[in-house]
Design brief:
It is a single chain. By secondary structure, this protein is α/β, with parallel strands linked by helices. It has 6 helices and 8 strands; from the N terminus they run βββαβααβαββαβα. The chain has helices at residues 47-58, 78-90, 92-107, 125-135, 179-191, 225-242, and strands at residues 3-11, 17-25, 33-39, 62-65, 113-123, 142-146, 165-171, 195-201. Strands 1-2-4-3-5-6-7-8 form an 8-stranded mixed beta sheet, with helices on both faces. α3 (92-107) crosses α4. The longest helix has 18 residues, at 225-242. The two termini are 18 Å apart.
Amino acid sequence: MSVAHSLLQYKDSNGKVYEGDLYVPRTTGMRKLPGVVIYPAFRGITEFEKEKAKALAQEGYIALAADPFGKGIRPTDKMECLGMVRPLVSERVKGLKPVIIAAVNAIKTVQGIDVQKIGAIGFCFGGTCVLDLARYNIGLKAVVSYHGTLKAIPDIPLDKIVGTAIQAHHGDADTHIPKEQVDEFHVEMRARNADFVFASHAFAEHGFTEPDADSFGLPGVKYNEKAAKRSWSATLSLFKEVF
């Protein structure tokens, strides 16, 4: 399927401006299309996130690679990227919540989208983002986290998660996400009566979806082709089910 690419500017509730990469199927049909927001890993939008957005558009979804840092802010240095992510994850309600909800609101403005059929996927830092969206009960049909942090949001009630199907893909050899965090995630999801699937991929380390992961120079971060392909296949299957 042919796909059109453009940049989409949007603002969060604090007025900060962001610029995401939008991919839309070229179709002459009148049917409204489901939408998927892609939340990036710690580097922000890279070619990896753009490729995933394009791949989703080729499946018939309107796809937006979300901008976590702001328009024109595209850090490339590893330490600079981590420095920008840390304040967001340390203030997940006050700092991160407006950023991630802004992208969902933005995709709903795209012509031809079915606003009742929105999902989200996220990698690493982005995995945290999409799990938080599920926790906030903003009406997403499905969210998929890949090697994301699984920690609950501090100091908020464990409300039921209603109407959002959750997939969490985890590397069984991920030293960045300890077993205690995995166990606590299961306890939280059960307490929230969530519709969730947790997949632990054998021998996969942190960052297993990213083909460039081995070049990051970070201990315990490594690409795993089998886990990457299986988790993506499961994602497409889930979206076909819920949409």
